[in-house]
Amino acid sequence: MRRWNGWGDETNSLDLPPNADMFLKDKIGTATPLPSVSLESVMSQVPVSRLPEHPLIVVAEEDRVRHARGQSLPDLLASRSGDFGVFPDGVAYPETSDQVAELLSFCGDKDILVIPYGGGTSVVGHINPFQSEKPILTIDMGRMNRLMDLDKDSLIATFGAGTPGPQVESQLHAKGYTLGHFPQSFELATLGGWVASRSSGQQSLRYGRIEQLFAGGRVETPKGRMDIPTFPASSGGPDVREMMLGSEGRMGIISEVKVRVSKLADQENFYVIFFPEWSKAKDAAKALVQSRIQLSMLRLSNAIETETQLALAGHEMQIALMEKALSFRGADSGKCMMTLGLTGSKAQCNAALSQLKKIIKSFSGIYTGTMLGKRWEEKRFTMPYLREALWDKGYAVDTLETATNWENVDNLLNKMEESLRTALNDENEKVHVFTHLSHFYGQGCSIYTTYVYRTADTHQKTLDWWAKLKHSTSAVIVNNGGTISHQHGVGKDHAPFLPVEKGKLGIMAIRSLCDAFDPEKRMNPGTLLVDTNDE
Predict the structure, then answer these.
(1) N or C end of the chain: which has fewer CB within 10 A?
(2) Which positions fall inside the FAD-binding PCMH-type domain (predicted)?
């Protein structure tokens, strides 16, 4: 059973190692956990639905609670405090594109607002309902979850848009193929959600981001059905496929997704390399990417993240021995950890490994083999459970992410970390901040920053502190050469910051496109674009 007030399956958890308490106390102080309310107490707050009856719509309290929030830190605080504010008036569970179209027609006739719902993993408010005089229907795509077709000649697979990551891969693996899209939310996130939010997977260096994998499909809009053909390429004017990427439910509901798949690779291994300091590590990462070595994944942690990961990894004796050996070879307190993957045939992987060893040697890199890489692989999709473990200890954790060009990486990274580290100074609260570069391009890379702080004495005050951290640093990002989001999307939380990136004319064009498909502004209002009452 999925948790109603946190991440993932109720039977799964990620325990903190014994030394975690001491590490966090040293960094930010002793914490006191906040209480959590019961599902029953929240269900008692759900008001009577305003929706007319429809055979596909459920108005039960528990369904509405479970679809009221996503997975952001404010969402966690809402579910743990019971202060949800707003619930959808009902939830629909379509099983076909025709049923999606039927629901949109019904909503048009009855003046109902619509929120599309994939895996519910949004961390920026995509799926959150809002105060409205009109009833709100959440359309959960989770029953449209199967492989519908596989064209082995063209390597195109067609899925229902509600198919979550594990089911995408299991259905493809059974036939000898993979999509290769592995965001950290892989356990729950869906194919349609990846397209709608322009997602990026951990192995994007081999398989590409979702915009390279999305070949076409079907979209149900308030103006009718749109089928997007799967040309390998086209110069036939603006790309309608691109219009749907990142549309975040504003233009319609993606019901079927056609994706470019690959045959399963012969082998795959993950390796860890340490560098004595940040500048050598960053330059090594840039050299690896710009030399076009056939990596499938690359992640580079700065010194503070490296220290944090090793401290929270468990296996204290083994880590201590490794750190002693690294120190002897020149990688001591300022060391930075790089994790990378090689995927392909045996010959491809051997050639790439030989090439990368030569490059990292020139930057004083220390190659440690696959031991730590295997541990990363084992836990790659369990890290979201760490938030629950930290919450139980009295700590709040969240992330901010962006992307920028190489010449701006250090400038932006340092300003982001400084903004977060000092944002609660007036509250006499410390914030533990650390960063990794998680996706790489010849032009630049993404910056993914995590921050941890003690919960306040109330849920509301903890939320107020989050708002101060989030908003001040989001402004730093867009005003210093970064995109407001590299992989999480815009949602409602980032919408106020999008005009800085797109400009007045760009926002006008996006709004006009949304209005063309949804002239009555019925689809997911407030997401992607800030909607005002006078529009």
Answers:
(1) N
(2) 84-264
Q: What is the pLDDT of residue 378?
A: 92
The number of distinct structural domains making up the chain is 1
What residues contact residue 534 under an 8 Å CB cut-off, 6+ apart?
Answer: none
177-178 vs 147-151, strand pairing mode: unpaired
CB neighbourhood size of 284 (10 A): 23
pLDDT at 19: 85
Q: What angle do CA 473, 476, 482 make, to 5 degrees?
A: 110
Residue 409 lies in a domain: no
CB atoms under 10 Å from CB of 488, counted, come to 26
Alpha helices in 218-263 (DSSP H): 240-244
Counting other chains too, the contacts that 150-157 makes at CB distance below 8 Å and 24 or more residues apart are 150/175, 150/177, 150/261, 154/230, 155/260, 155/261, 155/262, 155/263, 156/215, 156/230, 156/258, 156/259, 156/260, 156/261, 157/258, 157/259, 157/261
Domain span including residue 353 = 267-380
Does the pLDDT of residue 314 top 90, yes or no? no
The predicted-structure confidence for 338-391, as pLDDT tens digits, reads as follows 999 999 999 999 999 999 999 999 999 999 999 999 999 998 999 899 999 999
Q: Is residue 459 domain-resident?
A: no
Would you state the structure tokens that stand for residue 296, as one six-digit string?
Answer: 């499938």
CA neighbours closer than 13 Å in the CB half-sphere of residue 373: 20
Quickly list DSSP for 127-182: T-----SS-EEEEE-TT--SEEEEETTTTEEEEETT-BHHHHHHHHHTTTEE----
Q: Is residue 362 part of a domain?
A: yes
pLDDT averaged over the chain?
Answer: 96
Identify residue 481 by its one-letter amino acid code. G
The answer to whether 198 touches 77, Cβ cutoff 8 Å, is no
Higher per-residue confidence, 321 vs 216 = 216
Classify each residue of 214-250 as buried b or exposed e, where b means 16 or more C-beta atoms within 10 Å of its C-beta. Answer: bbbbbbbbbeeebebebeeeeeeeeeebebbbbbbbb
- The type of residue at 225 is R
- Output the domain CATH number for residue 370: 3.30.70.3450
Distance CA 235, CA 226 (A): 19
Residue 423 DSSP label: T
Mean predicted confidence (pLDDT) in 23-35? 96
Contact call for residues 350 and 340 (beta carbons, < 8 A)? no
- 534 band by pLDDT with thresholds 50, 70 and 90: very low
User: Dihedrals φ, ψ of 72, to 5°?
Assistant: -75, 170
Pairwise CA distance, residues 59 & 441, whole Å: 46
- The pLDDT tens digits of the residues spanning 422-467 come to 999 999 999 999 999 999 999 999 999 999 999 999 999 999 999 9
Q: How far apart are CA 501 and CA 483, in angstroms?
A: 7
Parallel/antiparallel/unpaired status of strands 444-454 and 431-437:
antiparallel
- Is residue 275 situated within a structural domain? yes
150-187 pLDDT, tens digit each: 999 999 999 999 999 999 999 999 999 999 999 999 99
